[in-house]
Amino acid sequence: MLQNNQLEIRHISPEVRQLIKMYADVNNCTQSEMLERIILEWDAQQSESERPPGDEDE
Hints:
Helices cover about 55% and strands about 0% of the residues. By secondary structure, the chain is mostly helical. It is built from two helices and no strands. It has a domain at about 10-50.
């Protein structure tokens, strides 16, 4: 899973790894796939929250 700046699951704290494992089991996927889903969702949420200047709510 190491490519460029991607995270490796071994660099994540044991508590978070356990949560990823539990989520992976529930979603019937591997821990690496679950981590990738989490990262993609996080990136999507960050992109949505970064609006261009001048588009602020009044």
